[in-house]
Design brief:
The chain is α/β, with parallel strands linked by helices. It has a single domain, classed as Alpha-Beta Barrel (TIM Barrel). It has two helices and four strands. It has a four-stranded parallel β-sheet, covered by helices on one side. The radius of gyration is 12 Å and the shape is globular.
């Protein structure tokens, strides 16, 4: 399985050309330089026909918000520590 990470529409298109099967789209909640937030995350994930996995800043407090997206799952280092 080939997966790739993207932060914006340009990177999503690059990953599609690379024929990835899933795209890790970040950062959903983590407030950093590439922070998307819920609305922009949903918008960007609709631009791709690939399955999307939420990445970045996921915690026990905000994990239920992932259900509001079309994300098939989530990944995050701090969540599993």
């Amino acid at each position: 399985m080939l997966i790739g990470s993207a932060h914006n529409l340009r990177e999503i298109r690059i990953k599609e050309k690379q024929k990835v099967s899933e795209i890790f789209l970040s950062s959903l909640f983590k407030n950093n330089g590439n922070f998307l937030g819920l609305n922009k995350f949903k918008l960007l994930s609709n631009y791709s026909k690939k399955e999307v996995v939420a990445l970045g800043g996921i915690s026990k407090e905000n994990i239920k918000l992932i259900n509001l997206t079309k994300s098939i799952g989530f990944a995050g280092i701090s969540y599993f520590k």
